[in-house]
Amino acid sequence: MTATLTVLLFEDEGYGGKVKELNDESQDQPDLTNEFTSGVSSIVLKENAKKWQVFTRVNYQGAKVTLEPGRRYTSPDAMGLDNPVQSMKRFHENGDDKESDDADETA
């Protein structure tokens, strides 16, 4: 069975520069700076995507927001962030990944 493309990551704002595709079988991304020097500046989540938590620092540190399926984010500002995304992981509805403002303190 072939995995379905669900997320597109772009190096530059406005869906420009280097691109990386994630699918429904992709693992969490603890360090996007290995592929995108400054991080990811725009993201497209297809309708069939899961929610993803994105972070402004590697290893799920820094400011954090949850991105919703079926949305296009043209810039870090459109995601509610001041800086590019440097790590991301799937959002889990269990208690482990609750939304909190704690991450903002390290931004």
TrEMBL record:
Q: What name does UniProt use for this protein?
A: Beta/gamma crystallin 'Greek key' domain-containing protein
Question: Cross-referenced SMART domains, in alphabetical order?
Answer: XTALbg
Q: Which InterPro entries match?
A: Beta/gamma_crystallin (IPR001064), G_crystallin-like (IPR011024)
Q: Where is this region: Disordered?
A: 70-107
Q: Which family does it belong to?
A: Belongs to the beta/gamma-crystallin family.
What UniProt keywords are attached to this protein's entry? Repeat
Specify residue ranges for compositional bias: Acidic residues. 98-107
Pinpoint the Beta/gamma crystallin 'Greek key' domain residues.
6-91
Coiled coil, from the record = none
Query: Which Gene3D superfamilies would you find in this protein's record?
Result: Crystallins
Signal peptide (from-to)? none
